[in-house]
What does this fold into?
Amino acid sequence: MAKKIPGLVKRGDCWHIDKVIKGRRICQSTGTSDLEEAQTFLARLMEENRQATVYGVRPKRTFREAATKYLLEAQKASLKDAALHLKILDAYIGDLALESVHMGTLQPFIQTRRQEGVKNRTINYGLQTVRHILNLAAMEWIDEYGLTWLASPPKIKLLQQLDARKPFPLSWEQQDRLFNELPDHLLRMALFKVNTGCREQEVCSLRWDWEEYIPELEASIFVIPALKVKNRLPRVVVLNSIARTVIEQSRGQHPEYVFTYKGHAVQTMNNSAWQKARKRIELPVRIHDLKHTFGRRLRAANVSFEDRQDLLGHKSSRITDHYSSAEVGNLIAAAEKVCVNELLKATK
It folds into this structure.
């Protein structure tokens, strides 16, 4: 049996490191119950420490370690989606050293996803997440030795999206057909979305404490915090008459969230009820198509490009959380142009 070297402590079935190396205390699991493996692990760790402090050689870190750090520290509206993509990617590149992650080692992931019938646009979401993590590792993440996690990021090239499905904006007749098939709570959310241009998660997470009343206009708006918005800018949501009707119907049903189902916040609009409804009317409409519908109707109503940008929440320097009542009044008038009184009858 191998003689245990100082710095290894067995806790349960696993050997743990508790050792001061070059003035820095290291406390971590070796991940093994075998003493020889644990000693090899500790020896490698000590050598990496020496290489980093004496020669400036970066310790080896896996993509899994980097992905974990990213998920723990990132603050973005789409973090849940990133986690799903990283879970799939882990089987292909999780064990690879950061410097070994590049377009070559990503090919098995790309090929398998294509064989599964996944669109290039969806595959690109995963590639974008990998690229973002590698950029952080090379330019922002500094370790205890004063070194970045990665010397330089590789070029991660996105796939051409020739297979992307085109937007499917709804006609008024198609909207009536679809909305008549939706349950009450989903109908209200869909009506709000198609009259404000909000993204799905902006609707699902909409809170009452984001509502602001503007006395000069005798109207309310919602200001969604930057952390909940895809482009990381505060999102001012103005309400036309249909959106206001939906808000008033929802008022008082829950102390925190605007849209709920059986007393709980709605996690997604793209649920089984939505899928069954669109199947019954035989329309390939997605949740995001409601946003496209709002944009198409604004354009058809001759709303200016700048106002369309603001109403759809696109990145713009014209309106942020610092707004004037005149600006908001102008946007409310623009949003009102897409209202059709007959739609109010669809509200339950």
